[in-house]
Automatic annotation (TrEMBL):
Signal peptide: none
Pfam families documented for this protein: YceI
Family per record: Belongs to the UPF0312 family.
Protein name: Polyisoprenoid-binding protein YceI
Residues annotated as domain Lipid/polyisoprenoid-binding YceI-like: 8-177
Superkingdom, natural source: Bacteria
InterPro entries noted in UniProt: Lipid/polyisoprenoid-bd_YceI, TTHA0802/YceI-like_sf
SUPFAM superfamilies per record: YceI-like (SSF101874)
Length: 186
């Protein structure tokens, strides 16, 4: 892996995108993002001993359709009033190269499951404002059922099926900054 400065890096939410895709009615896809995210990356001398801790505000979901967002925030899906956040805490980093596997505990609706994300280190740089940044991408897939998110509606077609697929694809583009640097200024 390219050198990454050891220490605790703060997630820059203004330059981070947490997105998901789920199949709708078996024929199309619904995409969405979570707009409120915070966390940190702790880099040790050995990259495999490093860790990440991310918390997402479930009420910040945005699928581009307010009625759908309201439904997903409700009891049928996330039950945001009782479960306002989702959290990912890494437990293992497999690999030392630019591409690696990030293993961690994902908690949604009070249920924690181990998930694996295929990740890529984008590099470390000093930006035009003097802030030291590191970038990462991560992708994976989870089952809604694993987190007791089981609401669905049957389709009225000869092929059958349901309105919302069980599998949800996750894509994260994250930017971290070294402490003491104001990520909001850029």
């Amino acid at each position: 892996m390219t050198t990454l400065t050891p220490g605790t890096w703060n997630l820059d939410p203004t330059h981070t995108d947490v997105a998901f895709t789920v199949r709708h009615a078996g024929i199309s896809k619904v995409r969405g993002t979570f707009t409120a995210v915070e966390g940190n990356l702790t880099v040790n001398d050995s990259f495999s001993a490093s860790s990440v801790d991310i918390t997402i505000d479930m009420g910040s979901i945005n699928t581009g359709e307010p009625n759908r967002d309201g439904h997903v925030k409700g009891e049928d899906f996330f039950d945001v009033e009782k479960n306002p956040t989702m959290r990912f805490v890494s437990t293992e980093v497999r690999g030392e190269g630019e591409e690696f596997t990030l293993v961690g505990d994902l908690t949604i609706k009070g249920i924690t499951r181990s998930v694996e994300l295929e990740a890529e280190f984008g590099g470390q740089t000093v930006d035009a404002f003097g802030m030291t940044r590191a970038g990462f991408e991560a992708k994976g897939e989870i089952s809604r059922k694993d987190f007791d998110i089981t609401w669905n509606a049957p389709l009225q077609s000869a092929a059958g099926g349901v309105l919302v697929s069980d599998k949800v694809k996750i894509e994260i583009d994250a930017s971290f900054v070294l402490p003491g640097e104001d990520a909001a200024q850029a």
